[in-house]
Amino acid sequence: MAAVKFRGLDAGTGLARWGLAAVAIGIVVGGTVPAAVSGLAAVVEANPQALVWLFERLFAWLSYIAVAGSVIYGLLLSTKILDAIAHRPISFSLHQDLAAFGLGLAAIHGMLLTAWSAAGIFGPVLVNYIREYNVTHGVPKAQAYNTTMYIMAGLLVVGVLCNFLIKAVHYRFHMKSEQEAGRAQAGIATAGEPVGA
Known about the structure:
With 197 residues, this protein is mainly α. Helix content is 74%, strand content 0%.
């Protein structure tokens, strides 16, 4: 297997391959999208709160598929089976992209779970506590939720501001090539502290 060279696929079958791929995609999309859209609309109409749960599960499922695909692709790369079909750098890049996509979706899934559970626990507790406080201190029941709504609006503004404060990771924390990593390690060994820190 070590002597396998890139041959690519037969150029004469290119049109047939693309045509078969287009037909397969058309069958899958045409057969599933209308039913999926009508099913989603029925769920949202019956229970609008279930939409968050559906998207959270969708991100989890897509994350699982992407990470599993990346693992399978990595195994095919390590056994050099793909070398006969595609250039190794392209295959490696696709493997990395699948892994990054899967991990990104897993992060979204985790954030949705965390936000959903935190809102489910702290939201009602905060609303009820403030309402009870207002009622016991003489605020009419019809106006007991006014302060609560202002606090919730303030928390929403704080969340939006936190999103704008997120910045890209500084360049010095990026992965370095082996040569740069070797120089940095040598600098640590001689000076006792990281180079460029």
